[in-house]
Amino acid sequence: MSRGKRPKWMINIAIERMNILFERAELEFINHPERSDRYVELAKKLSTKYNTKIPEKWSRRYCKNCSKFLYPGHNCTVRLVNSEVNIFCSECGHVMKLPYRKEKKHKRRAKYESIKKRNDE
Ligand SMILES: [Zn+2]
Q1: What does UniProt give as the signal peptide span (predicted)?
Q2: Ligand 1 centroid from CA 41, angstroms
């Protein structure tokens, strides 16, 4: 297949497939963790091939360093440190730091809107 931008419908299929792969990875993790890692690998390949980001829902469910599927309470620890989400991968010891900004912004906006609503009433 040639390089370059893919049509939208193709990207949508890629996203759908990534979702399916991660859902399966989650289901199989307890009994077959090696399968989960393989699914992550496949999803990452799709993401590169179609130049599409891994769905946000799943982007924190694999290690950016060793590409292993992460299952909180089994092979990773999730902590909230200084308004940052720290995901510690027990497989390779890598810590992923994700800013909590987005969620915060969302909350602030919700608060503002509720105040506005009250004033309008
Ligand atoms: Zn790792």
Answers
A1: none
A2: 13
CATH architecture of 8-120: Up-down Bundle (1.20)
Q: Is 76 annotated as a binding residue?
A: no
Does 89 count as an annotated binding residue?
yes
Residue that wins the pLDDT comparison between 111 and 61 = 61
Tell how far the Cα of 50 is from the centroid of ligand 1, in angstroms.
Answer: 24
pTM of the model: 0.78
Q: Of the given ranges (26-30, 49-53, 116-120), which has the lowest mean pLDDT?
A: 116-120
Calpha distance 55→42 (Å, rounded): 14
Q: Where are the domains of the chain?
A: 8-120
